Amino acid sequence: MSGVVGHKSGFLIAYIFIFSFGAVITAGFIKTENVYDLKLDSAEDSVVANRIIKCFSKEDNFGIIDETKFSKDILTRCMGDKYGLDVKLRKLEGKNNAVEIGATGEMRTVSRYVLVDGKGAKLEVGYAKNVQ
Length: 132
Hints:
Elements: H1 2-56, E1 57-58, E2 61-65, H2 72-79, E3 83-91, E4 97-101, E5 108-116, E6 119-129
Parallel strand pairs: 2-5
Antiparallel strand pairs: 1-2, 3-4, 3-6, 5-6
Helix pairs in contact: 1-2
């Protein structure tokens, strides 16, 4: 009887080793996937902010804002209805501007520094996905 138990203990140790190795590999993949989820959120932040900057920029001058373009109609034309947006242009001198479209509930906010009339300004983009 002890020969049978002794004979199977080698297989038992091998099974435990293989199971442990598989569990460690699986945990590593799960941890990596969580890191990529965070990177995708920051990528979406950058894409939304850059699309809005491009929307309001002067022709062929990315990041140099044309204040005559800063309107609800142009923002809607550029972004469509996928996002609810609250865009604020905060200038060092002069009047600040704000545009809002869509449903603005719980929003993520991204800031970028831009130029307006050769002077620095801060473009604050708050966005929320319009889920329908």
